[in-house]
Structure formats: structure tokens, C-alpha cells
User: Fold this.
Amino acid sequence: MTHTHRTTARPYLGFGLGLRPAHYDAILNESPAVDWFEIISENYLVPGGKPLHYLDRIRARYPLAMHGVSLSIGSRDPLNKDYLRQLKALADRIEPAWISDHLCWTGVEGINAHDLLPLPYTEEAIKHVAARIGEVQDFLGRRFLIENVSSYLTYPESVMTEWEFLREISERADCLILLDINNIYVSSFNHEFNPSSYIEAIPIERVWQFHLAGHQNHGDYIIDTHDEPVIDPVWELYAEAVRRFGDVSTMIERDDNIPPLSELLDELQHARSTAFQAQREFTASADLS
Ligand SMILES: [Fe+2]
Assistant:
């Protein structure tokens, strides 16, 4: 555990999109009204070449955040120092607003399961993950954001809720949280809990970013596919989150079935107006009380 990274005021970037190669040219030619972009770190770890060439040019115009998928913070394997060194080199190059990855594990003994698997919610797992986040934060020399994943399975060993688990880890590691609103919705559907309980349990000052995304509903279970627009119940949950957490940098993730940039800009506009309306309601109810 580390105490060298104390809470600082939350930066606010506004409304962003995931940076995807299909949009590189449109971004550089049209300078769209996106406040910031989130990159998948793994796509830019190879020195030189086209991806970094585009990234540098986009970075000259927009703030960026780095989002990784292969840290595997929950794994029992040692942390991959090569990977961390590469992350750090990329961070030195593009000076991201922050760096994030998922609260999950992606396989053991060097075998990547290519999926973001949840952890059992136990004291042992809290200790294990909090210590590893401490190591990552020390290595990178900055505080780290950890994201809640969507889940389809539960472990009989679990002795607490997912939100208790996430809160406890964030406090013990003194790390920050990337709250994925869609993942809360998906998990609440699959495991039949009230998503509001989740939102209300997360410490306000630790949440630095929101993710919004679409998913596929198969009737009795939902798969988090990031290939569809955000659905209405997720917008409602997002409004609830804005009422609790205030101005938190928000971005829309689309990883598959990627539409033209203009379509995502419309969806981002919907995020802006939803957040603005939620803030107004919040202010109005505060005035009344
Ligand atoms: Fe996400």
C-alpha cells in the first residue's frame, strides 16, 4: 500500500470519444467538437509507424487519456514490467490526463483469456489488488484509475457486493475510479441488483471519469459489446451519476460496428444535454432544500 499519491482536485475534460483509426482522417481534417479522446494504450506501444504518427498530430489539438486492457491487475502472475515500461514511455510522450485499466484479471500463467474476468469479492482479493495498484502507481509515478467491468458470473467465495469491493480497493490503494455506467447497468441486469445502490456507494472524490457504451440484450442476459448506441436506461443511470458525482469527464466507447464520426458526435451531444439537465435538476433541488 502507498500513501504517496494523495487525493487532488478532480480535473475535468468535458465530453470525449474513444479514438479509433477509422476516424483519424476525419478528426485531422474536420477538427470536430470533441473535448478529448481516450486511446487504447496497447495500440500505440510500438515505437514509430503510422499509429504514433497520427497520435502525435491529434495530441497537438486534443487532450488525451490512456486506457489499457492488458494490465490484469487481479492476476496472480507478477506485474508485467515490460508492459509498464512501455506504458510509461507512451505517457512521457503524450502527457495524458490520466491512465486507466480494468478491475479484473485476463488469465493466468501467461495465458491471456482475452476477456476481462471479474474477481471474487473477498478480503484476500482486496489486499492483493490494492497492493498491485500501489506498485503500478509507484512505477508510473502517478495515481491510476481502475474501471468496473461488466460481469456474467459470480463466485461462491464472494462475501460482499461489487460496489463494496470497488470502494474498498480504491480507498486502500488510494487510487481513482473510472466508473463505467453501462457496466453497472449490465451487471445489475445480470445479477438483479439495484444500480442506484452501486452509484450511491462509490466515493465522490475518487471518480475521475465515466464510460458510456451500448450493449446487446439477449433477453435473460446482456453482453457488453460496445457495438450499439447507448440505451435509455443507461442514459437515466448516467443522469443519476451526474447528480451524485457532479462534473466528471465523460466519454462514449464504441469498439465495433463503428459508425461515421458524425453519428458519434450526435450521441456525444446527447451526453452533454443529459449531463447539463441533470446538473440543473441537482442545483434546483439543492435550492429548494
Ligand atoms: Fe468501459
In short: The two ends are 41 Å apart (CA to CA). DSSP finds nine helices and ten strands in the chain. The beta strands are 15-18, 36-40, 64-67, 99-102, 145-147, 176-180, 207-213, 216-217, 222-223, 249-253.
